[in-house]
Every structure is written in C-alpha cells, then in structure tokens.
Design goal:
Blueprint (H helix, E strand, L loop, with lengths): L7 H28 L2 H9 L5 H24 L4 H5 L1 H25 L2 H8 L2 H13 L5 H18 L9 H21 L8 H21 L12 E3 L2 E3 L1 H27 L1 H7 L2 H14 L5 H29 L24
Antiparallel strand pairs: 1-2
Length: 347
Amino acid sequence: MPAAPRRTPKLGLQANKRNFAASGLVIALFSSAVFGTSGSFAKALLETGWSPGAAVAARLTGAALILAVPAVPTLRGRWHQLRDNWVTILLFGLIGVAACQLFYFNAVERLSVGVALLLEYLAPVIIVLWLWGASRKRPRVLTLGGTLLSLAGLVLVLDLTGAVKIDVVGVLWGIAAAVCLAIYFFITAKENDSLPPIVLASGGLLVGAAVIWLAGATGMLPMSFSTADTTLGPWVTPWWVSLAGLVILATVLAYVSGIVAARALGSKVASFVSLTEVLFAVIWAWLLLGELPGAIQLLGGVLIVGGVILVRLDELRSPAAATAGAGPAAPKAGSPLEHANDVEPVP
C-alpha cells in the first residue's frame, strides 16, 4: 500500500508565511509609532527658537549619514544604479523629503501636531480629485465616497465655527505638504526594482539635506538654531535629546522598520497600517506636548482617516477587478498609483 503523500513541508511553509506576516504587522505598527514622534520632537525644538528650516536640515543630515552606513554596502560597488536612477533620487529628495518635511514643520509651528498631520493625510484625496479632473472619468463609488468623507472631515478639523480660530497660514502649509505628498506618489508610482529602497532613502535624504542647506546659505530659508533646553512631557531635556529623537527614532528607525514591514506585508497592506501614524502622532503630542485636538477636530480626523481607508480599499480591489476573467493580453489596471512605495516620504 503506497504511503500517503506528505504535506508537512507545505503546511510548514504556510505557517512560516503567517508568522512572517504577523511579525511584519508588529514591525509596521512600530514604524508608525516612531514616525508619529516627528511632529512632537520637532515642535519641542521649534518652541525654543529653532526655525523649521534648521530642524529639517539637522534631521535630514543626521539621518542621511546614518543610513549611508548600510546603503553603501547594499550597492556592492554597483554605483551605476545611482547614475541610472538620479532623476528618481533627485525628485524624491526635493519633493518627498525636503519640501514635504519643510511644509509640514511650518504647519506644526502654527498648528497642533495632530491637525497638521491630518491635513497632510489629505494627499490621497488630492490624487483622486486630480485624476478625476484630468481624465474626466468619475471615480468608482467607494473612492468617491471616501473622498467626500475626507472632505467633510476636513471641514470639522478646521472647526470654522469654533471659539478658537485656526491659523490660516498654518492650514495652507499643511495643505502644501499634502500636495507635495501627492506629487511624490505620482513621481514614484512606477515600480522600480533597480534601486534598493535603503539606497533610495539615503540618497533622497542626502539630496534633501543639500537643498535645505543651500537654501539657508543663500538666505532663501531662515536658519536659526538654539541650545536651550527642550520640554518633553514632564521632563526638561538638553536640545540634543529632542534632535536625537527626531533623527534616530522618527527618521532612521522609522524608515528601516517601514522598509522591513513593506517587504513582509506587501507595500499596500503596509501603507494601510501606516494610517495608524495619525493616531500615534496625536497620542505622542498629548503625552509630550500636552496638545490634544478638540472633540470636533478629533471627529474630523476620524472622517479623514476613514475616507482614506475607503480610497485605499478601492485601490486594493481595482487590480483584481481589472484582471478578472481577462486573457494574457489584458491591459493592466489604469490607475497610476496601484503600486504603493516601499519608501514613503518622511512626514
């Protein structure tokens, strides 16, 4: 009697995949948690006299130098990868790193961390509206519903009828950060396997740092530093503690863990988990700065995040819908943003 086929290797492989995905989820949550500290560490510096440009320059320079340590051996002498992808690295550094961070920090200087980040998270809605206007094709119901939900949330976040008037300039900086984030996604939506993510991250940070320092040296961007102590929650700490947190926790660890999570979960699932960054940012701002958006603004934040979730759910469904029942010659789904990035811009 022939022996029954062995299924242990297959079951073991499935179990390993589940364990890998589970560990990826934990890492993705950790990445969101440390990313969420950036606004709090930055604001602690801004409140002692640092300018947004100085905080961005210090953050990018420190992170670029640290990430260069693993990035250089990753290239394994294949320096042509930098030459072949210089446009991607340049645009990532200019828009996804320098401009996005500078605008976000300018918003944080005038608004609470939570409100500033919620404004930046309108980027997916801006993408939907742009594609709608450019193609003259109405989005699917789920995407349209998510867009309208996020716009309603924006109205509540701004709390236009509240007793405390929100800073209009700060709001414009936050929306500018969202526009930069949207442009970044358009630029890097095309999948690129010729450049390791850690190299793109390090190169983009280096380009962003060079741009900010150049703008400061020419007088285009105010650069003011301070060695005054910073306040984080109940603790008064030296200035370098907040800067170290901004560089090491909110940038280096956030980037590396985000890359690991994207490879374990897939970039789209990882991008969903990254939405928890808003929650973590609000919690950190509450614990470290004593900031907490009002009840109406928190409700608006829930609507914005809920709307973004609907839009991203529709993105997840679209490739399967476009290829279902199609033959080998079927075209790929039309959305230019179906491939989420392994390397996200630093908020």
